[in-house]
From TrEMBL:
Its EC number is 2.1.1.-. InterPro entries: SAM-dependent_MTases_sf (IPR029063), SAM_dep_MeTrfase_SAV2177_type (IPR006764). GO terms for molecular function: methyltransferase activity. Coiled coil: none annotated. It comes from Amycolatopsis melonis. It is an enzyme of class 2 (transferase). The lineage of its organism: Bacteria, Bacillati, Actinomycetota, Actinomycetes, Pseudonocardiales. This is SAM-dependent methyltransferase. Keywords: Methyltransferase, Transferase. GO terms for biological process: methylation. It comes from the Bacteria. SUPFAM superfamilies: S-adenosyl-L-methionine-dependent methyltransferases.
Length: 268
């Protein structure tokens, strides 16, 4: 029996013919929901850039800090776009630790990510996973989980954490649709791959990802800032993941090593 047939976490109908960003990222974070082909890509990325797993961990830590920040501002509902395979410190865990009534909708188009999220959330009435392409904004925004769990007349925390660079060049209308759907007082958190910093700018990174379901489109600082259109960046503005509201004792990380742009915006 092949590895794919054996693994009971693989939902029927999942396209496993090509590696996926969700499963590569899971491997880099030390998870178990990945296949040999995903691991091979992850290892190729690590051979090009040994810091790639560190970048992924810092990204995850940023996500948790951004969610806590939004909770501190009174946000009690989150739409997590490109949420990935659940790992430690998922959004609903961070949010419901602060307020058990906090609501979360996870969105991903990768069936393993969605199936695993649903399994984890089966006894959680305040969180759900939606299988959808985030660029189909109308489908996401009118979906059953969004309609039943999120109240769009109240502030929402939009999470676009390492998702923008998987979306093709003309991505601004996608971000604009989510912005327009949420009320003032909402927040948007973004992390985004760029070639502006040394750590992930090797062209072999993008080349390697071409063999997967998820090609990447790194963006410049100005292009990432444009995704915040209609939001006011909170302090310290657009920085890199480890340097956004670092934990009290964390050392500043050189952006050249940190690699991902990171910021949080407020919709006035
Ligand atoms: C690197 S993972 C990030 C997971 C999580 N947001 C984080 O930063 O920890 C990127 C995720 O985006 C998902 N993804 C990429 N393009 C997508 C799309 N168009 N619609 C929905 N999900 C997408 C992938 O399946 C993957 O799970």
């Amino acid at each position: 029996m092949s590895e794919q047939e054996e693994a009971d976490w693989i939902p029927p109908g999942a396209d496993l013919s090509r590696p996926s960003a969700a499963r590569i990222y899971d491997y880099l974070l030390g998870g178990a929901h990945n296949l040999a082909a995903d691991r091979a890509v992850a290892q190729r990325l690590e051979a090009i850039q040994p810091q790639v797993a560190t970048v992924a961990r810092r990204n995850r830590a940023f996500l948790r800090r951004a969610v806590r920040f939004m909770l501190g501002q009174g946000v009690r509902q989150f739409l997590d776009l490109g949420s990935g395979i659940p790992t430690v410190g998922n959004v609903h865990e961070v949010a419901q630790e602060v307020d058990p009534g906090a609501r979360v909708v996870y969105v991903d188009y990768e069936p393993v990510a969605v199936a695993h999220s649903r399994m984890l959330l089966k006894d959680n009435p305040n969180a759900a996973a939606l299988e959808a392409d985030v660029t189909d904004t109308a489908a996401v925004l009118t979906s059953e989980p969004v309609r039943t769990l999120l109240d769009l007349t109240e502030p929402v925390g939009l999470l676009a954490i390492t998702i923008g660079h998987y979306l093709p060049p003309d991505v601004r209308p996608v971000f604009a649709a989510y912005r327009d759907a949420v009320t003032s007082g909402s927040y948007l958190a973004i992390t985004h791959l760029t070639n502006d910093f040394a750590v992930l700018s090797d062209p072999r990174v993008a080349e390697t990802m071409r063999s997967t379901q998820d090609r990447i489109f790194p963006r410049t600082r100005d292009e990432v800032l444009a995704l915040f259109d209609g939001f006011e960046l909170v302090e310290p503005g657009l920085t890199t993941s480890a340097n956004w509201h670092p934990d009290r004792l964390a050392a500043v990380v050189d952006p050249e090593e940190d690699g991902l742009y990171a910021g949080v915006g407020f919709k006035p």
